[in-house]
Design a protein that fits this description.
By secondary structure, the chain is of the alpha+beta class. The chain contains seven helices and 16 strands. The chain folds into three domains: 189 residues, HUPs (Rossmann fold), CATH 3.40.50; 56 residues, SH3 type barrels (Roll); 77 residues, Elongation Factor Tu (Ef-tu), domain 3, CATH 2.40.30. Helices cover 23% and strands 26% of the residues. It is globular.
Length: 369
């Protein structure tokens, strides 16, 4: 229970359905201050979670994973940004914290399952190849055989399967997503009908567990500036940057370019010469690619067949693009039917077949051509 409306309603629905529910609040970050109260933001979030738990008459446990969060998520994030690639911290957070150490701790304490307020669904099948589907978003008792599919949430604007693509079968079979069959509008309506204190609370923004902040400034706390030239694809110098780590492919905002008054987009990084490559048009061919390699792939079920047809999402809330998978050693190549815009090394490419999330990997950095 994060103190938000989604996890609040998830707990309320489970309680109504007769489950023995215990709330769990995760404290991962204590440095961000609330703009209005000046106190550590996590204290306000926990206070909201406590109010909901009190109304539902359920206990609330607090788990302090700040040390692990800094080591497993932030350290890796800073290392990869410093190397010039741009990982998604929410993907890392779900893999390492929510469905990593939090799940493990829940199992150690004897809980049967964990439930979260994610917009996703789970479906049971006899096997990953074939078999009749059984119950979807909520089930009991827990089944130790068969195959569990991760499905998109029904609300296309809130579906969070992208962030969950590194979840394992062992975790899925002991996980519930009680609101995955609802839209955000329905969640807020139900929360209001149940008079939950968080019913009208705005959605959280920013980095997982940290919140909204100046990300450039946040990076500079750990990564020293390393200025260099901003150049066009022809090599013309058009500005200066203070470090390649602060930019991602496709970025438009925050570029210190003074030439022709046009909108410039990041198209590449020349790490050997510490140059940021930009183009003056969003539709420039340098921003489009038809293929990419994936590193550190994870499959929720069986490994796909070489040559399998899939749909691939290269960023959150993007409509997945039709593509073909092919195996190249330990890595996988995605070949898109049509060129896709702004492939960013370090970001996750998540693979689907229809509503089912198969897994995915991290977009690899390939040599400049």
């Amino acid at each position: 229970m994060s103190g938000g409306v989604d996890s609040s309603l998830a707990a309320a629905l489970l309680k109504e359905q007769g489950y023995d529910v215990t709330g769990g609040f995760i404290k991962n970050w204590s440095d961000t201050k609330d703009l209005f109260t000046g106190e550590c933001a996590w204290r306000g979030e926990r206070r909201d979670a406590m109010r909901v738990a009190a109304q539902l008459d359920i206990p609330l446990l607090t788990f302090d994973f700040e040390k692990e969060y800094r080591e497993r998520v932030l350290r890796r994030m800073f290392e990869e940004y410093e190397a010039g690639i741009t990982p998604n911290p929410d993907v890392l957070c779900n893999e390492e914290i929510k469905f990593g150490i939090f799940f493990e701790e829940a199992m150690k304490r004897g809980f049967d399952a964990v439930a979260t307020g994610h917009y996703a669904r789970i479906e049971y099948r006899v096997s990953s190849i074939e078999g009749r589907a059984s119950s979807s978003h909520i089930r009991y008792p827990i089944l130790d055989t068969g195959y569990f599919r991760l499905l998109k949430g029904v609300d296309p604007e809130k579906d969070q399967s992208y962030f969950l693509h590194r979840i394992s079968q062992n975790v899925l079979r002991r996980t519930m997503f009680p609101i995955g069959h609802l839209t955000k509008k329905e969640v807020r309506r139900l929360a209001a009908e149940k008079n939950l204190p968080t019913a009208g609370k705005p959605d959280s923004q920013g980095i997982c567990f940290i919140g909204k902040l100046d990300f450039h400034e946040f990076l500079r706390k750990k990564i020293p500036p390393r200025p260099g030239d901003i150049v066009t694809t022809e090599g013309t110098v058009v500005g200066r940057h203070d470090g390649l780590d602060a930019y991602t492919i496709g970025q438009r905002q925050g570029l210190l370019v003074s030439k022709d008054g046009r909108a410039w987009y990041v198209a590449g990084k020349d790490r050997a010469q510490n140059r940021l490559i930009v183009v003056p048009d969003r539709e420039d061919s340098a921003l489009f690619s038809k293929t990419t390699l994936l590193e550190r792939t994870h499959w929720i079920g069986d490994e796909p067949a070489d040559g399998m047809r899939v749909e691939a999402a290269i960023r959150y809330r993007q409509t997945p693009e039709a593509a073909t998978l092919s195996k190249e050693g330990e890595r996988w190549r995605i070949t898109f039917d049509h060129p896709v815009w702004a492939l960013a090394p370090g970001q996750s490419a998540v693979l689907y077949r229809g509503e089912e999330c198969l897994g995915g990997g991290f977009i690899a950095e390939e040599p400049l051509h």
